[in-house]
Design brief:
Helix content is 24%, strand content 25%. The chain has 188 residues and is an alpha+beta fold. Strands 1-2-3-4-5-6-8-7 form an eight-stranded mixed sheet. Helix 1 packs across helix 2.
Length: 188
């Protein structure tokens, strides 16, 4: 079992991708127990149309939210709003190197320097801290980028596990909008 082609842990030799593999855009973003692999436009197109996007998924994947995010990347590219790094990532578990969910941005930072994040995890991977670690890793990468002043997350009122994820990742409640709670994370 391996990571998706082109996705490897820093410090370990990269595995060459087979010629037919879907290429990823940049180096992976490591977290505790997970690694985030940016989903390229070609991988996103494959995911959106029902394929694996070049990843080896846990038995119940890929999740529907990741397929939807992949489709949004395609739309952003079509209208010239695709910004590498500011789209979806696959969450790959270190223990078995299987993709277990998706995380990413709803787009590049807005004029105030805010970007919104979203994530989903396969049911078989929930309850192990993977979403929190993925969110911490993504936020760490994001705050290294110029111009970002805050990350937003919007969580449905009744989604207690997701509220716990954003709070553990350091987000603070910042109001509510349309039956959901808005959270904000600023650089430390």
């Amino acid at each position: 079992m391996g990571l998706a082609p082109g996705c490897h842990r820093p410090g370990r030799p990269a595995r060459p991708a087979p010629p037919t593999a879907l290429a990823l855009v940049r180096q992976p973003c490591p977290g505790e127990g997970v690694v985030l692999c940016e989903i390229s436009p070609s991988a996103a197109a494959d995911l959106h149309t029902g394929g694996p996007g070049g990843f080896v998924w846990a038995e119940d994947g890929p999740p529907e939210g990741t397929r939807i995010a992949a489709g949004m990347l395609g739309l952003a590219r079509e209208v010239g709003e695709y910004h590498p790094g500011w789209g979806p990532y696959a969450i790959v578990r270190d223990t078995d190197r299987r993709a277990i969910g998706g995380i990413g941005f709803h787009g590049a930072p807005d004029p105030e320097g805010h970007a919104e994040v979203g994530y989903d995890l396969l049911p078989s991977a929930r309850g192990h801290g993977h979403a929190t670690e993925a969110l911490r890793a993504l936020a760490g990468w994001a705050f290294e980028q110029p111009g970002l002043t805050a990350l937003r997350a919007v969580v449905d009122v009744g989604n207690a596990p997701s509220h716990a994820v954003v709070r553990r990742a350091g987000f603070e409640r910042d109001g509510s909008v349309d039956g959901a709670v808005r959270y904000l994370l600023r650089p430390r």
